[in-house]
Design a protein that fits this description.
Distance between the termini: 63 Å
Largest sheet: 5 strands, mixed
Radius of gyration: 22 Å
Oligomer: single chain
Number of strands: 5
Mean pLDDT: 91
Shape: elongated
Helix content: 40-55%
Strand content: 5-15%
Length: 321
């Protein structure tokens, strides 16, 4: 039994750390996922949507800290019982999603590993059994050292996780698992394969008032996309800097487009106010949020390949050839 308890301890701790880390590098992705869960068509808890980001950050950091606490044996009763509460919450979400077919990707492993709803639910059932077993055999969970070392490790993991979260929110994800990561080819991401799965890039449509310009844009040598998923939620202090970098790019031979899911009235008013020197195309908001975790953000394309992408706050680091 002791050996089984130690094996379960390692499996649960490692999975929680991994699950937390792949979401920690992109907490905004978890925010979007909880907004989906809280929406009218799923749990109908729309009053919680404004709190989706802090809620996501709390859960993600908790996953990592509790996983580490379990491995080092810090406060075993508190740690395991916290894991019980967390896994039961996850079990409810994944079970609800699987049974009612509401959220097709729970985001348990961020964008790193995609699981189908029932696969996710089965994974959580197995984790629940392991954690309940640990709760029953909690006497076998001992600290790795009898000194203050386990507590120091747990506290350090909390501080490091909080710092990574702050950095990522101020810039961009430190690891990008999405189909629009630097070096990825958007045209290749749009290709259908024989496995029957939807391609990772399936809603890349850039429309003006008449046509979809995406096929043309993906063939261009030098393109700058200024991505503003929502003008209403954009950081308006960014637009003077956006204007400068857009003018600089135009002088260097780039074709510059803005891309947004907002209505034309606010787009035209903003363009006029800040004298933005580019046409704004329409694209689905979910696609734009997937492309870049910034509003606004900059993406550089070369014949459909993502060459660079930056949060507007890091515009000075953008290299224009």
């Amino acid at each position: 039994m002791k050996t089984l308890a130690q094996l379960a301890r390692i499996i649960v701790g490692a999975l929680f750390i991994f699950s937390g880390f792949v979401k920690l590098v992109d907490p905004i992705g978890s925010q979007y996922k909880f907004e989906e869960y809280f929406s009218e068509g799923v749990l109908n808890l729309e009053f919680l949507i404004p709190y989706a980001l802090p809620f996501a950050i709390f859960l993600v950091i908790s996953e990592i800290v509790l996983g580490i606490a379990l491995l080092v044996g810090w406060k075993a009763k508190f740690t395991v019982r916290s894991l019980v509460v967390m896994i039961l919450f996850f079990l409810f979400l994944t079970g609800y999603s699987a049974y009612f077919d509401k959220v097709t990707d729970c985001g348990c492993f961020g964008d790193a590993i995609k699981l189908k709803p029932w696969e996710t639910f089965i994974k959580d059932v197995i984790l629940t059994v392991l954690i309940l077993f640990l709760n029953y055999k909690i006497r076998f969970i001992k600290p790795i050292k009898s000194t203050f070392l386990p507590g120091k490790i747990v506290f350090s993991s909390l501080i490091i996780s909080a710092f990574i979260t702050y950095y990522v929110l101020a810039h961009l994800p430190i690891i990008d698992f999405r189909a629009y990561a630097i070096g990825k080819s958007i045209p290749e991401g749009m290709e259908y394969k024989d496995d029957g799965e939807i391609p990772p890039v399936h809603d890349f449509i850039l429309e003006n008032s008449q046509n979809d310009l995406a096929p043309e844009i993906l063939k261009m040598e030098k393109v700058m996309l200024v991505i503003m998923s929502s003008f209403e939620k954009s950081e308006y202090k960014a637009f003077p800097e956006i204007k400068k970098i857009a003018n600089k790019a135009i002088k260097k031979g780039y074709t510059v487009y803005g891309v947004s899911a907002s209505f034309s009235d606010i787009i035209q008013a903003t363009k006029k106010e800040f004298q933005l020197p580019f046409e704004v195309l329409f694209c689905d908001e979910t696609t734009l949020k997937t492309m870049i975790r910034a509003n606004p953000g900059i993406m550089i394309l070369k014949k459909g390949i993502v060459v660079d992408k930056k949060n507007w706050k890091d515009i000075d680091d953008l290299e224009l050839l």
